[in-house]
Amino acid sequence: MSAGAGAVPKTGARRAQPAPPPSERWALGGEMVAEFVGTMVLILFGVGVVAQVVAADLGNHDSIAWAWGFGVTFGVYIAARTSGAHLNPAVSVALAAFRGFPWHKVAPYVLAQTAGAFVAALLVRWNYTEVLAKADPGHTIKTQSVFSTLPGNGTFPVSEWGALRDQIIGTAILLLVIMALTDVLNTAPKANLGGLLTGLLVVAIGMAFGTDAGYAINPARDFGPRLASFLTGYDGAWRDQYGNLYFWVPIVGPLIGGLIGAALYRVLIAPFLPLGEQPAGRVVETD
After folding, report:
1. pLDDT greater than 50 at residue 88
2. How far is it, in rounded angstroms, from Cα 154 to Cα 241?
3. DSSP secondary structure of 70-94
4. Under a CB-based contact definition with an 8 Å cutoff, are residues 264 and 176 in contact?
5. Consecutive H or E run containing 200
6. How far, in Å, CA of 146 to CA of 75, rounded?
7. CA 185 remoteness from chain centre
8. Which residues are CB-contacts of 65 (< 8 A; sequence separation ≥ 6)?
9. CA distance 113 to 130
10. How far is it, in rounded angstroms, from Cα 165 to Cα 179?
11. What is the sign of the dihedral through the CA atoms of 204, 93, 124 and 144?
């Protein structure tokens, strides 16, 4: 008969390993909370500014691009020390594939990111209840773009396949540059400037690649708010202006594009960086 819990084992018996300290056991939980809050802040600024522009006619495309960029910056500064501030499933998947980020953490990170985006969108929906009702009483595709993206921003003749192409390209650019910004063997930014430069990267993508698909470049950013809008009166949230199922485009496109961008950095840039003495904090890339 085996010894009960707490019993002293016999001489030579295998001793039970001590439980990991709470900081280790709860590390993943803390990382998920950081991803949740960081993504929530990102979406509060991003979806909030689109609501202000689309429903209240305050601001323009540039204010949208800048608010999204600042949202990314502030989200990164909130979560970076705890979780690495991925804030984007495409980033988590690409880092797992090319930077040694543990695969078992990808699903929890994606869940936390999507949940943060969902809650943030609900808060924006609630806060802008009266404004949205006045601008679009039927909660139609006219203001659906407040929460989720559409091909051609609902206006230009872009198909879902054209939007998919755009999402692949835009997210490839995002990950290509993020890989450079976070590689200390390269000229990675110093003095905690990484968050600011990542935000500026998103501003640049929005200003250069915002027409064909609204530069979601982030599955959580689109799916979370899309679900929130569907649950709060936007019955057509899953479809585009042509009536086609569209929600999959800003999920599949960024996941593909992120892998392509990270692979391009790994193949075209990383092998030619001078190694020398490995700097402290270097994230070792594994095959």
Report:
1. yes
2. 6
3. HHHHHHHHHHHHHH----SHHHHHH
4. yes
5. helix 194-208
6. 20
7. 25
8. 203, 206, 207, 210
9. 28
10. 21
11. positive
Question: What tens digit of pLDDT does each residue of 17-76 get?
Answer: 555 555 655 789 999 999 999 999 999 999 999 999 999 999 999 999 999 999 999 999
What are the Cα distances from residue 267, in Å, to 14, 23, 180, 272? 47, 37, 12, 9
Distance (Å, whole) CA 195 – CA 77 = 6
Query: What Å distances lie between residue 90 and 1, 72, 134, CA to CA?
Result: 51, 14, 36
The amino acid at residue 92 is S
Measuring CA to CA, which residue among 140, 93, 125, 109 is closest to residue 237?
140
Sorted by sequence, the CB contacts under 8 Å of residue 131 that are 6+ apart come out as 51, 55, 56
Cβ atoms of 179 and 56 within 8 Å: the answer is: no
Largest Cα–Cα separation, the chain = 78
